[in-house]
Write a structure and sequence with these properties.
The protein is mostly helical. It contains 3 helices and no strands.
Length: 94
C-alpha cells in the first residue's frame, strides 16, 4: 500500500478522477449521491481522526518544550545559587 502514499500529487489527483468516472458506470443520480455521500463520510472520519491526532501530538510537543524550558530555568537557578552569581546566564555568542 506504500505505493499509494509515495505517489506524486498530480498522479494521485488523476487516479482519483479516473476512479470517480469509473464509479459512475450505470448508476442513476440517486445511487451516485448515495455512493458519493458514503465515500465522503469515510473521508470525514479519516480527516477527523488525523486532525485530532495532529492536535494531540502538537500539544504533547508544546508540553515537552515547556517542560524543557522549566527544567533549564531550574538548573540555571541551581548553578547560580552554587556559584553565588546572581547574573543571568547568557546564551553562547552573546
Amino acid at each position: 500500500m506504500s505505493f499509494f502514499f509515495d505517489m506524486p500529487s498530480e498522479l494521485m489527483a488523476a487516479l482519483g478522477t479516473v476512479l470517480g468516472f469509473a464509479l459512475l458506470g450505470d448508476l442513476n443520480s440517486n445511487q451516485q449521491n448515495s455512493l458519493g455521500n458514503f465515500l465522503m463520510l469515510i473521508a470525514q472520519v479519516l480527516e477527523t481522526s488525523a486532525t485530532q491526532q495532529q492536535l494531540l501530538d502538537s500539544q504533547k510537543m508544546t508540553e515537552t518544550a515547556n517542560d524543557h524550558e522549566s527544567r533549564i530555568k531550574r538548573l540555571e537557578e541551581a548553578l547560580r545559587a552554587q556559584s553565588g552569581n546572581n547574573q543571568p546566564f547568557s546564551k553562547s555568542g552573546d
